[in-house]
Prior knowledge:
Layout: H1 8-41, H2 46-51, H3 57-66, H4 73-85, H5 99-134, H6 139-153, H7 156-170, H8 195-202, H9 205-242, H10 245-252, H11 257-265, H12 270-286, H13 289-294, H14 300-310, H15 313-341
Helix pairs in contact: 1-15, 5-6, 5-9, 5-12, 6-9, 7-9, 8-9, 9-12, 12-15, 14-15
Amino acid sequence: MSILFPSGRSARRLTGFGHRLGIVAVTLLGLLAMTFFIGRVMPLDPVLSIVGSDADQSTYDQVFHQLGLDQPLYMQFAYYLRDLLHGDLGRALLSGNAVTADIARVFPATIELATIAILFGTCVGVPLGVFAATRKGRLGDQVVRVISLCGYSVPVFWFGMMGLIIFYAWLGWAGGAGRVDLAYDGLVQSRTGLLLIDAALAGEWEVFQSAIRHITLPACILGLHSMAYIARMTRSFMLNQLNQEYIITARVKGLSEFEVVWRHAFRNILVQLLTIVALAYGSLLEGAVLIETVFAWPGFGSYLTSSLLLGDMNAVMGCVLLIGIIFVTLNLVADALYQVFDPRTR
């Protein structure tokens, strides 16, 4: 009977799960509807992108009808949702391939770039935030706050261009455009889509080194924004904890400053930091457009930019849907981690 009629706690969990699932569905539906209708009123003609400006009127009308643009907007959106429920995102005008195949091809490059960027941002931002909090109002705190302000406010494309000029053109430390030198392009068979992993699995260490040289600079520049954000939030969280009574008690007991800061105060901000890092990672995945453009990185951002300029709404809608799913998933993961690491939220 307990299986058919769950207990009160189980029923509440099921209800909560259903409520979250409903919110997710409504959020994604609203995101798709907004993107779809904005895309349809943009001054871009996808038909001309296909047939060209020299096509005659009959060819134009035929393609116009094939794309369903002669239907009312609500009917076009209904047809799109119908196809979406069957896993069909349509075909991209740019490549002629299925949008799902194009996204599966370009997205691993962005995952690789954003993952290294968030590792850089977290490994640098968290210690900087703790350092600033323990030196509140002093020179170290002011320096970290200036660094965070610059990383958060200076446009990332400016950092990208300056990085190319200094570290590639002048010093020669970094690789140029793309994921690997042209001499190594295509030497490694794509298994995971992550070039570093594929090169390591194939034992192509020269390709691996070339990929490291190419990805380090754009990843670090992309991670500057998340580093600044994580450092600021870490400082804020740590300042709140360092003013608590249990910290005073720990110091009175004679604990070292390292134990007070890292074993007591820092442990109590881990749950909050998990959410910050998760959301920062999602922002990197969908916000790599400018860096990928500057460094000619063949990833998700470049694909989305090209699709927007071409007026390819099938590709744009697929990209927007993926971005929405990423953010929703990361939010759900962060909520789950909250419950795992903080029993008070259960």
